[in-house]
Protein: Beta-barrel assembly-enhancing protease
Amino acid sequence: MFRQLRKTLVATLITTLMAASVAPAWADTTDDLPDMGTSAGSTLSIAQELQMGDYYVRQLRGSAPLINDPLLVQYVNKLGMRLVGHANSVRTPFHFYLINNDEINAFAFFGGNVVLHSALFRYADNESQLASVMAHEISHVTQRHLARAMEDQKRNAPLTWVGALGSILLAMASPQAGMAALTGTLAGTQQGLISFTQQNEQEADRIGIQVLQRSGFDPQAMPSFLEKLLDQARYSSRPPEILLTHPLPESRLSDARNRANQMRSVVAQSSEDFYMAKVRTLGMYKSGRNQLTSDLLDALAKGNVREQNAARYGRALQAMEAKNFAEAKTLLQPLLSASPNNAWYLDLATDIDLGLNKSTEAVNRLKNAPDLRNNPVLQLNLANAWLENGQPAEAVKILNRYTFDNKDDSNGWDLLAQAQAALNNRDQELAARAEVLALTGRLDQAISLLSSASTQVKTGSLQQARYDARIDQLRQLQQRFKPYEKM
Structure:
C-alpha cells in the first residue's frame, strides 16, 4: 500500500543488544534469576514509565525515520507479542517499531517500547535470529533496566542525578548531543554506571534466551547471531554500531553457545511472513547497505517453498518499485492465484492496480477478501483504493471504524483527512490532521487545528463539544509532558 518515512534519525542506544558475558545455562527453562527489576519502583513507578514512554514515542514518530508500513508493523508486533507471551514479570504493554537504518542495532525504552533497525533483516538468516534480538530487548523491559540505572545513579551520586536523567533522555532524541552531555555529567561516576550496565546485559541475555526457547524458537540463534557480530568486527575497518559502545568479547560467544547447548533442542522453521518481511524491508526501504540484491533473491529461489514464494514476491516488488506495473502484475499473478487471501500479495496487487489506474479492480478484490473484517492491513488498502476510485464516502465508513480501533496509527488518520477533504468536510479534515500532529508530539499545532475545527461547526452542537473535549485532553497531556520537555 502506501508508506510513510519520517525525516531524521532519532534515538540510539539506551539499552542495546547483548553486551556483556553470559553465565552458563541450565537445562530447565525457568527464569532462575532473582527479579532484580522490582527495586526500581522507588525511583520510577510503572505509571511514570508508561507516561514517559508515551512522551518519547511521540518524539520518535515525529523525528525518526520510522517505517510506518502496515504490513511490517503488523509482522514485528505479532512476532514481538509471541515472545512477550512467554516472558515473566511483564508489567507494561509492549509496542514494537522499525527504523530505517542500515546499522545493526535495537534498543528498548520506557513503557514497553522496543525499536528495531531495519538492518536486522539484512543480517538475520532466519526468524529465530531476529527473535533472539527481540527477546533480549524484551528482557531489558521486563527487568526495568533503564529505571534501575536511574535508581543506581541517584543512590551513588545524588547531586548528578537530575543531570544524568536529562542526559539519558536527551541521548534518545539526539544521540551525539545526548552522549556528550552524559559523559560530562557522569565524569566521576561513569565506571560504576558501566558496571551496572554490564550486569543488566547479563541478566537480559540469560532471561532472553529462555524466553526465546519457550516461544518455540531455536536457542542456538542467540550465539549464531553473536558470531555474526564478531565476524563483522573482525573483517571490517569499522565494527557494527552496536559494538562501538558495547564491546563483545569472544568469551561471550562461547558462554552463549554453552547455554544454548544445555537447552532442549528446538526445530524452528522460519515463517513465510519472515521471508516476506525481509524482502519487503530490503526492497522498499533501501538505506545504505540495505538493498534487495539479486544474490539474495537467487538464494531464496533455491530454498524451501516459503523462500521460493518470497523470491517471487521480491521480484514482483522490485518491478513495482521500478514502476514496471505490467511486469509486476505478471510476476505476482501466480502467487495471488495460489493464495488469493494472502495479505502480502493483496497489498502488492493493490499498489500494482493503482499504478495501472485500475482502482475498480483493486476495490472489488479487497472488498471480497474473506479476512477484511479482521485484518487492519486490508482495511487500510481498501480505504486507499476507495479514495483512488473517487469514492471518499466509502473510505470514510471504513476509516471511522479503523481510527476508533487503531487510535495510534497515523496511517488511518492520514487517509481519513484525505477522504474528508475530498468530501469538503473541513472541520473533520482538520480534526483528523490534528490527531496525526498529536501522535508526533506537536500538541500545540494539534490544539490549534482542533480549535479551528470547533469554530466551523454549529455553536453548542455535539460535534463542537467533541472537539472541545479533545482539546481539553491534549492540554492535560501537555501538562503531564512538561517535566520531560525540560530535561
